[in-house]
Specification:
73 residues, alpha+beta, YefM-like fold, three-stranded mixed sheet, 3 strands, 16% strand, rod-shaped
Length: 73
């Protein structure tokens, strides 16, 4: 596990965040001895999980639209 001083963390936050992403966790230690853990939060949703759109169409409306599109082709 990587342990950084507060000063190192402040100066190189981007690289420390990247290290936490790769390793799972890094620790930051203050001068007074307090230590903090920094770790990434895992997304619980899939990246393509999006909310649907309600178009107020019945199944008959959808079938009619599909038939119309097929006739045009």
């Amino acid at each position: 596990m990587n342990v950084y001083t507060f000063s190192e963390a402040r100066q190189g936050l981007a690289s420390i965040l990247e290290r936490a992403r790769k390793d799972g966790e890094v620790q930051i230690r203050r001068r007074d001895g307090q230590t903090f853990a920094l770790k990434p939060i895992k997304n619980k949703k899939a990246p393509l999980d999006v909310a649907g759109v309600d178009l107020n169409l019945s199944s008959d409306d959808i079938v009619d639209i599909v038939r119309d599109m097929r006739e045009r082709s």
